[in-house]
Amino acid sequence: MEPQDRVINDIEVNLRLRRTLALVLAGGRGSRLKALTDWHAKPGIPFAGKFRIIDFTLSNCINSGIRRIGVLTQYKAHSLLQHIQRGWGFLRGEFNEFIELLPAQQRTEGEAWYKGTADAVYQNLDIIREHGPEYVLVLAGDHIYKMDYGKMLAHHLACGADVSVACLEVPLEDARGFGVMAVDDHDNVIRFDEKPANPQHAPGKPDKALASMGIYIFNAQFLYDRLQEEASEPGTEHDFGKNIIPKLIGTHKVIAHPFQDSCVMHEGATEHYWRDVGTIDAYWEANIDLTTVTPSLNLYDTNWPIWTYQAQLPPAKFVFDNDTRRGMAVDSLVSGGCIISGAVVRRSMLFSNVRVNSYSLVEDTVVLPDCDIGRHAKLKKCIVDQGCVIPPGLVVGEDPKLDAKRFDRTDKGVTLITADMLRKLEG
Question: What's the pTM?
Answer without folding.
Answer: 0.95
